[in-house]
Amino acid sequence: MAEISxxxxxxxxxxxxxxxxxxxxxxxxxDLEIGVLLEAKAAIQDSPLLIFxxxxxxxxxxxIASNVIHTPRRFAFMTGLPLEAKGVELVQAxxxxxxxxxxxxxxxxxxxxxxxxxxxxxxxxxxxxxxSPRWHEHDGGRYIGTGVMVINKxxxxxxxxxxxxxxxxxxxxxxxIYMSPGRHGNIIRKKYWEKGLSCPVAVVCGxxxxxxxxxxxxxxxxxxxxxxxxxxxGRPVEVVKGPVTGLPLPARAEIVLEGELLPPGVExxxxxxxxxxxxxxxxxxxxxxxxxxxxVLHRNDPIILGEPPLLPTIDHFSFGKHIxxxxxxxxxxxxxxxxxxxxxxxxxxxxxxxxxxSIKQRYGGHAKQAAMAVGGFYVSSYMNKICIIVDDDIDPxxxxxxxxxxxxxxxxxxSVEIIKHCWGSMxxxxxxxxxxxxxxxxxxxxxxxxxxPYEWINKFPKTIGIRPELVREVKAKWKHLFQE
Length: 484
What we know:
The protein is of the alpha+beta class and 484 residues long. It has helices at residues 9-19, 33-42, 72-79, 87-98, 184-194, 209-215, 225-233, 321-334, 366-376, 378-381, 399-409, 412-415, 433-438, 468-477; strands spanning 22-26, 49-53, 63-66, 108-109, 118-121, 143-145, 149-153, 160-163, 166-171, 174-178, 199-204, 238-241, 248-250, 255-261, 268-271, 286-298, 303-305, 340-345, 354-359, 386-391, 416-422, 443-450. It folds into 2 domains: 9-305, Pnp Oxidase, Chain A, CATH 2.30.110; 318-470, UbiD C-terminal domain-like, CATH 3.40.1670.10. The protein is built from 14 helices and 22 strands.
């Protein structure tokens, strides 16, 4: 595995410039133009990392970095994997990276860091100091928080959690933080509110991609994302003590907002709408407790990490979350289900909606066992609408092969099940207004066992595909035909 050599967002960008594509765009307007340009660029195969500078109304140096991890090559570099790995090969490489088990590496507190180059407090706090975009055409305002980490600490256990939640600006020192029900940050903030207290929080608006990725993936409750990222990096994350909250802040972060989340009903603000990762404005406009910002810390010439959700049909790579999620699902399946040959979370539909598992069938009910196991894992149950099980000759990362298996190997009457009352979210656009009004976020899941029927598997017609060994033999003989 390659060494993870970068320590912050700036070093990451500098190294990406050497091994991949990076493009600087100057003069774009924070109001929609940046969002439109990002969407247009992200739709291109192997699209470049984007740096927006000289943004309308802002001086040079106050930048936005976007499309930071959106290719297999950049994901591989970020995580220290082979740069040419793709598809299930990339999932397997990630599994190898983490197969020894998580060995948490605690962060180390340092006296100072680049984050402390500028500290604005009290009347000097002004969130409009930074070029926060209105990303989507129907967004309800400017969102400084898309590629962010929200830090809070469990008042009972001291567990420090970092989670990715959207942050909308409402004034110079007011914002809102939307946290979906069931998420760790939401559970923690409610503990403060139940005690009649405000919840201290810090919002990191520009972090190194590895730490940010840790904050947006399912880390076990009780473990800090700092510890997880330290383990992946092989060295502790350096943190400084927040001057207002006392929370540990990444010492090399670009921008951090410190303050408190007021209890509900004290000062609620209308949050949204916002274009979400499902591809809709499903959660609408709703009251959210105010985030009172008491201090802003930032580096000289700060960079916002701007990673808004795009239409899943455009954002095929889903920040690499589907790679890491598929690897965790695979590991969990290996504990319970034999002969799992591949796992993929299908890109182009969002990182949670569609899981595909390839198995070598060994007994009747094997495929159904795999499907039901996937539905029970924390990492794969939230917002999952479709689970497909295929045979081991099908590449789960190849949607054409998966669809072919569905239409040729299963009879819908025998191979399709509907599972009701599954874990959902208000981001689910298919929930009826009546269900949303009642707070009922449950949805159904379809399970498809697109495998050859086990009871007559040996009589199933042979596939016309050529044996891989023969393909390699012929290609080797005629290799000049396959050279680019």
